[in-house]
Amino acid sequence: MSVLTRDSVGRAGDRSAPGEATPHRRCGWWTTRRRDQLAGLLFVAPQLVGSVLFVLIPLGLVFWYSLHEWNVLAGTFEFVGAGNYQAMADDPNLPSVLRVTALFSAGLVMFNLSLALLLAVLLNQRLRGTVVFRTLFFSPVVVSLVAWTIVWGFLLQDNGGVNGALGVAGVDGPNWLRGDWTALLSVIVVQVVKNVGLNMVLFLAALQGVPAELYEAARVEGANAWTRFRRITVPLISPTILLTSIITVVGSLQVFAQIAVLTQGGPGTSTTVLVYYLYQRAFQFHQFGYGATLSVLLFLIVLVLTVVQWRMRRRWVFHEQ
Amino acid sequence: MRNRLTAVVALTALLGLTACGGDAAESDGPVTLRMTTWSANEAHLKLFDEIAAEYTATNPDVAGVTFDPIPFESYTTTLTTQIAGGNPPDLAWVLENSAPDFVTSGALVPLDDTLKGTEGYGFDELAPAATKLWQADGKLYAYPFSTSPFGVFVNTDLVKSSGARSPAELIAAGQWTWQNALATAKAVRAETGKAGLVVRDFDYKGWDFLSTVWTGWGAQAWSEDGRTCGFNSPEMVEAMTVLHRGIFVDKALPGPGTTADFFAGDAGMTITQISRASLLDGQKFGWDLVPLPAGPKGEYAVIGQGGMGVLKQGRNAEAAADFLAYLTNPANSAKLAQFFPPPRTSLLTAETLAKTNPLLSPEQLQEVVIDGIADGVVKPSHTGQAELNQAVRAALDPLWRPEADVRGVLDGVCTAINPLLAK
């Protein structure tokens, strides 16, 4: 977008002052156009340098490492070609890891988006106290992730706060972090409560952009609340739904600290998602080459999911700017 | 044009990075050594700094030694990441469970020549039981600076208020067995509401700490040669059945997902290394330290170790080995003995250890420390330990449920780790 703007400004400048600009451009190398280009590059340089150093070069290195057997302790680094990719295809743990990752991401995305939308719709009403609740739901977003997770780790213990509260209500709560499905559910809930506020704010902003007269017209036509939500609200905020779903899907595939702090992938392997598995392989088992191969797999999964979502937008996103 | 400039910026950045990665060893001046540790204890670091200062005063080639504490939980991971990142320390503490990986991979420099060549070092007095884990092909790859036996710390106030027989009474009567220890733990739990017996650092994840229990039954995680799984042996099944009953029927040990810190007064007894005795300094409750209870196979001891090695990939390996020889010479070993039970037989006497371990009585030092080091079984370790650790932890998880089929779960552990043991 910024490139187009710069080009169009440049062309507009050329046309608006032909008498002055043309002689300069013809006799010297240092033209207005070149000067603009350099200014533009200087503006984007800090971001560009950061991206190259911390994104593009590491990304290239990950592909390079994935073609090698890297024994950190022995200090050996041998080219094995597609050996790690073959090992990945034969890895007996990988199907279970991918299944847990899919379950985790699906649960997180559905739970996060529906709760965020519900909260946004509720907080979009003109009622007293909504500002307090907005702040309340958004505040976990700014809390340190590890601190948040450690506190939840205590709350979810067998004799922790969650079961204490359930006990008051006469319910005998499960040992949340030790049961196969309760552990996965716990990690999902901890992550959703942490981040739902961000999506909620995005939805809230989108809801406030829906023109009130559309609702009035629908009301005159006799549409009930559900129909108004389905036929007016959802289509008009669909660009935001697309944005939040892409962010949340990508985010769900990168969840690491919560797993590392709460369950370390257990019990069994019930919470070993792909990111945690590649961390184990690379940093705990010292298999950096294979860990890099799993990173490539993660990269491809994120890429495919994002492209699919982006392609599908034409079908269900109502309008695009 | 834009593309070309982008390429130039990227290339410049890359060159800048490469320029930053110069090798410090190329400079001719005195070097600074770095040692990673898992102890951030001020008293430990003060002693290390003092020894390092004495060393640098007489060795102009070494400008200083920095001690770099890394949290215990992530120690080996952080250390290997530093090595992978091209920033290896010159010296490193190595945990016993990663000893086989470090010793056999060629990551460490053999120390025999340097240590034997240091005047007055007394290489021959290092106890073979202590050095065994750190040797490969007859060469010593790390100095076992800490050989710390596991013992049972007792909160005598809690045990007394439970009305149960205390470990000291049981020892006097010759009845300090696992059966009676668990009965005392059960009484503490039932009468005081506090935890009975805590296997410290186990927390239903660090399964290797359970070797302090199953060794009493003569069970092993795997055979001596590391090739055969021992989890489904009759001895292990019996030990784990007793443990399972203790956790889920008698509540003698806190269940999964429950934390209880002995040193905060939350438990009647805890099994841990005697080096944790320093945590009892200034405690308000009465305490005792006793050896591990006898199992069906009689009395036994389990030891945990820490080694100090010189990294081959470090930039100053020769200087680092020389400093290690100084740090662990007889005089400095005696100083280190106040925190870490030493491998030198001349220092392993109750009198010597009593001078530097004021919290422990001579009887405790003799029974738990000296006898423990002489007869102790080292906690399980194997090449590829991290992967084995993870596989055993995952396969053992189903055991930590009230309705678990102990035999079935332990068979499952062997199924999971047999391919790894065969590697």
TrEMBL record, chain A:
Domain ABC transmembrane type-1: 98-309
Recorded topology in the membrane: Multi-pass membrane protein
One GO term of the biological process aspect: transmembrane transport
Keywords, in A-Z order: Cell membrane, Membrane, Transmembrane, Transmembrane helix, Transport
Keyword Oxidoreductase tagged: no
Membrane-spanning ranges: 38-65, 102-123, 135-155, 183-207, 236-257, 288-308
InterPro entries listed in its UniProt record: ABC_transporter_permease (IPR051393), MetI-like (IPR000515), MetI-like_sf (IPR035906)
Locations listed in the record: Cell membrane
Record-linked Gene3D superfamilies: MetI-like
Region (Disordered): 1-23
Main location: membrane
GO CC entries: plasma membrane
Family: Belongs to the binding-protein-dependent transport system permease family.
Protein name per the record: Sugar ABC transporter permease
Species per Swiss-Prot/TrEMBL record: Verrucosispora sioxanthis
Taxonomic classification: Bacteria, Bacillati, Actinomycetota, Actinomycetes, Micromonosporales
